[in-house]
Amino acid sequence: MDSNKGGFFNLNEKIYKKFIEYNQFQIIAVYPKGKENEVAVLKKEIGAFTDMVKWKFTAGSKEQIKALHAGFNSNDTLSNLYTSNVFLIDKNGDLRGRVNDADSVDGKLFGYNMNSVSVLNAKLKDDVLVLYYEYYAAFKENNKNKADRKEVGL
Hints:
By secondary structure, the chain is α+β, with helices and mostly antiparallel strands. It is built from four helices and six strands. The protein has one domain (about 1-150). Helices cover about 45% and strands about 15% of the residues. The strands form three sheets. The chain has a two-stranded parallel ribbon with strand order 1-2. The chain is globular, with a radius of gyration of 18 Å.
């Protein structure tokens, strides 16, 4: 955890603080069981700069963490049950990302390097905004449909 604190601080500053006011936004950090003391230190250090209300930390077994990561179907690899990539998951539990990313070899980006401020600023932030725009547009369409049904007496 110590060697990766910088990435967590980047994520906090560039993403979490930007979206903390958004409904349903949260950051979930999965860590190996037995690392509770290290996580407590990390939470305390980040908490000195921000309200941690939407940061969730959950412990998992080696098998659980590997299975979760494998479910992302990314080209990312785990090293000691850790990755510097963060993943964008929508409210339906689906992995979100890009299929036409100019900087990726195959054009696909389904993990954002939290050690890169430019990736967080230019890509993850934009992709979270796109996701919220989709939710807003769907909400607006749903309300329009309700109003239309009301007009015709349904």
